[in-house]
Amino acid sequence: MGHLFDLGSRKLHASRPNAPKVSAALKLHVRAARRQDIEAIVRVSKSSLDPAEEVGFGATGDSPFADVRRLTAAWEEPNRVRGEEVLVAELDGHVVGCVTVEERGRELELININVPMDLQGRGIGTALVRFVEGRARREGKAAVTLGTSRNAAGVAWKSLPWWRHLGYRITHEEENEWTRRIGPGAREIRMRKDLL
Ligand SMILES: CC(C)(COP(=O)(O)OP(=O)(O)OC[C@H]1O[C@@H](n2cnc3c(N)ncnc32)[C@H](O)[C@@H]1OP(=O)(O)O)[C@@H](O)C(=O)NCCC(=O)NCCS
Q1: pTM higher than 0.85 for the full model?
Q2: Number of structural domains in the chain
Q3: DSSP E strands, the chain
Q4: Separation of 35 CA from ligand 1 center, angstroms?
Q5: What is the 3-state secondary structure (H, E, C) of 19-46?
Q6: What distance in Å separates the CA atoms of residue 67 and residue 13, rounded to the nearest whole number?
Q7: Which domain, by its residues, includes 170?
Q8: What pLDDT is stored for residue 17 in this prediction?
Q9: By CB neighbour count within 10 A (0-12 exposed, 13-18 middle, 19+ buried), where does 136 fall?
Q10: Residue 62 confidence (pLDDT)
Q11: Buried/exposed 91-112: b ≥16 CB within 10 Å, e otherwise
């Protein structure tokens, strides 16, 4: 048996043993990550997708977010990893999502976003993206940008329609260092949401 809890008007059903418990005033809180969150962040990263479905779409084998020791070693106070700033969504004291961003001049690049599979589709990812957009707006950025991938067979990664739903449009597709690590024929789909 899991626990039922509210996220705005949505009902969540969490089956993980460490999932958030029922609470009277449950609020999703997005905040800067802390070193103490490392284990939870790795758990969130590893439970957000089945590694098999990512084959041909992502080169994440060497990601520090996949391993507690690597993430601990790469962590720079207060919340930086390899130049990316790490933010988490917390619900009733539990980390239920993670997003990383990187300053790119007039733009804020959303590098990665993860919500555990058993908590997806309940608005957590949207809340993280909205938080990133709000922060970019406050900093006077012109846009939030991001990249997703297209595999060698021409199939886009499954989150593409989700990004469109959130108002992101494709600007172009390219091959680059990241796609070369994924494999021949892979491309990065570059997306952008103008804020001004
Ligand atoms: C992508 C991801 C972060 C989304 O997080 P999430 O918490 O599941 O997303 P949400 O619950 O906020 O999404 C719900 C909203 O998206 C819409 N939506 C969901 N799937 C959709 C789809 N395939 N196409 C269009 N809209 C979709 C829902 O209708 C809902 O819209 P509403 O808020 O207007 O009602 C999450 O699925 C994840 O971690 N995936 C694996 C990692 C990944 O792919 N990251 C992105 C790399 S580019």
Answers
A1: yes
A2: 1
A3: 3-7, 10-14, 28-32, 75-76, 80-81, 84-91, 94-104, 107-114, 143-150, 169-174, 187-194
A4: 27
A5: CCCCCCCCCEEEEECCHHHHHHHHHHHH
A6: 27
A7: 30-194
A8: 46
A9: buried
A10: 77
A11: bbebbbbbbbbbeeeebbbbbb
Q: What's the confidence (pLDDT) of residue 25? A: 53
For residue 157, give the CATH number of its domain: 3.40.630.30
Give the pLDDT confidence of 172-194 residue by residue, as tens digits.
Answer: 999 999 999 999 999 999 999 99
Query: Which two tokens mark 129?
Result: 């993206």
Q: Give the tokens for residue 110.
A: 């959303």
What are 163's two structure tokens? 């990004």
Interval between CA 176 and ligand 1 midpoint (Å):
26
Which parts of the chain sit beneath pLDDT 70?
1-26, 60-61
CA dist., res. 128 & res. 89, Å (int): 7
Residue 3 domain-assigned (yes or no): no
149 class by beta-carbon count within 10 Å (0-12 exposed, 13-18 middle, 19+ buried): buried
Ligand 1 pocket, CB under 6 A: 48-49, 113-115, 120-126, 148, 157, 159, 161-162, 165
Give pLDDT, residue 8.
54
Name the amino acid, one letter, at 116. P
